[in-house]
């Protein structure tokens, strides 16, 4: 069977038509391999997979949309609670995809090698990594090589049939490469070339759905595969957003704070729910620093077909379960407007005298 990549528009259309399909569901084996058939009947039991809005009352976990969990890579983020929650969700029959970052580990490795990581600020105020060729080599070594393996092992030891993937594997995450970005240096706009990053525009949703149907929990990391056939960096929050959109999932973005604060310095100003475009504008205005990208990713996820997005504290008790139960900042699909006139490619609309396309927000983790 040939698998076709899923575009964000495909996922949104699938959610809007609310197609129902029935597939076989078998209990997860925690000793590896494919799930076993139902012990009483000898055949697989049925479940309903809804590619649309989440069931809020009744029904088993297997009948609800998948959960995509983004685990951050900052030093302050402890993944232990997330691992336990993933194990509980999967044991209860919920489909889960884990997407992880790892920028801190990449920086640490660069420094151990005697090299300095490079971060830039775009004219739009987004701060992110500039990934030159050497950084990309280290990135590929650390992210899919070490961090993905370590997290996959940890999940398997917790009883989860985890399977590690990079965005290159099976063409999971693909899109155009951005070799130049617009940056602010010494107060002036400049174009910085030689970047090894890209923008994810397609997700091989069929690959993920096949793995989920067979009882596996995919553990996904960048790099992505660019349109020129080169593995390049991509932002992990936005990778998680693309995956959640393709699967029509609930996206839980775990970070080191309780959510988005109206006053970034005051945790008591947590924004609990965002349901209208005006409330989303307020959310965007409140987001600063690293939170800017998470809000950007939330919009991309919802535009792409995700059911809802929650930004929550990775270090809370039962962080994923608590987020699904109401903690953190909940951003609903009704908060974003799919406006064709709105700039969705994150470019500045400016060009330099060479005519090259330089992206002002496609800096990465």
TrEMBL record:
Entry's Gene Ontology molecular function annotations: acetylglutamate kinase activity; ATP binding
Record's keyword terms, sorted: Amino-acid biosynthesis, Arginine biosynthesis, ATP-binding, Cytoplasm, Kinase, Lysine biosynthesis, Nucleotide-binding, Transferase
Biased composition (Basic and acidic residues): 1-15, 23-32
An example Gene Ontology biological process: L-arginine biosynthetic process via ornithine
Gene3D superfamilies: Acetylglutamate kinase-like
Composition skew (Acidic residues), residue ranges: 339-365
Disordered: annotated segments: 1-45, 336-365
Enzyme Commission number(s) of this protein: 2.7.2.17, 2.7.2.19
Subcellular location(s) per record: Cytoplasm
Associated pathway: Amino-acid biosynthesis; L-arginine biosynthesis; Amino-acid biosynthesis; L-lysine biosynthesis via AAA pathway; L-lysine from L-alpha-aminoadipate (Thermus route): step 2/5
Main localization, broad class: cytoplasm
Reaction catalysed by this enzyme: [amino-group carrier protein]-C-terminal-N-(1,4-dicarboxybutan-1-yl)-L-glutamine + ATP = [amino-group carrier protein]-C-terminal-N-(1-carboxy-5-phosphooxy-5-oxopentan-1-yl)-L-glutamine + ADP; [amino-group carrier protein]-C-terminal-gamma-(L-glutamyl)-L-glutamate + ATP = [amino-group carrier protein]-C-terminal-gamma-(5-phospho-L-glutamyl)-L-glutamate + ADP
Site residues, Transition state stabilizer: 70, 294
Binding residues for substrate: 129, 233
Family: Belongs to the acetylglutamate kinase family. LysZ subfamily.
HAMAP family hit by this protein: LysZ (MF_02082)
Name recorded for this polypeptide: Putative [LysW]-aminoadipate/[LysW]-glutamate kinase
Species assigned in the record: Halobellus limi
Gene name for this UniProt entry: lysZ
């Amino acid at each position: 069977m040939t698998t076709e990549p899923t575009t964000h528009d495909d996922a949104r259309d699938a959610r809007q038509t609310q197609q129902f399909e029935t597939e076989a569901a078998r209990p997860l084996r925690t000793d590896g391999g494919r799930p076993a058939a139902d012990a009483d009947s000898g055949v697989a039991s049925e479940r309903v997979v809804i590619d649309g809005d989440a069931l809020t009352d009744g029904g088993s976990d297997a009948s609800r949309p998948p959960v995509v969990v983004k685990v951050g890579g900052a030093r302050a983020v402890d993944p232990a609670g997330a691992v336990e929650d993933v194990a509980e969700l999967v044991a209860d029959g919920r489909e889960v995809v884990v997407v992880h970052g790892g920028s801190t580990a990449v920086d640490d490795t660069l420094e151990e090698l005697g090299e300095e990581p490079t971060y830039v600020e775009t004219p739009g105020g987004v701060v992110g990594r500039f990934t030159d060729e050497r950084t990309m080599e280290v990135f590929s070594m650390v992210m899919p090589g070490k961090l993905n393996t370590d997290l996959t092992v940890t999940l398997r030891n917790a009883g989860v049939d985890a399977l590690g993937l990079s965005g290159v594997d099976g063409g999971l995450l693909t899109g155009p490469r951005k070799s130049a970005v617009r940056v602010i240096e010494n107060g002036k706009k400049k174009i910085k070339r030689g970047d090894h990053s890209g923008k994810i525009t397609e997700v091989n949703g069929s690959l993920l759905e096949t793995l989920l149907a067979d009882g596996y929990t995919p553990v996904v990391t960048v790099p992505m595969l660019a349109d020129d056939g080169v593995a390049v960096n991509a932002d992990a929050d936005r990778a998680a957003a693309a995956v959640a959109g393709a699967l029509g999932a609930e996206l839980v973005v775990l970070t080191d704070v309780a959510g988005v604060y109206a006053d970034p310095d005051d945790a008591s100003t947590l924004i609990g729910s965002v349901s209208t475009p005006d409330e989303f504008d307020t959310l965007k205005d409140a987001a600063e620093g690293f939170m800017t990208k998470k809000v950007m990713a939330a919009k991309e996820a919802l535009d792409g077909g995700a059911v809802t997005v929650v930004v929550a504290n990775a270090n809370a008790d039962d962080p994923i379960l608590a987020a699904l139960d109401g903690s953190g900042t909940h951003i609903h699909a009704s908060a974003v407007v799919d406006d064709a006139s709105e700039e969705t490619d994150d470019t500045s609309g400016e060009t330099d005298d060479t005519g090259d396309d330089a992206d002002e927000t496609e800096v990465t983790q």
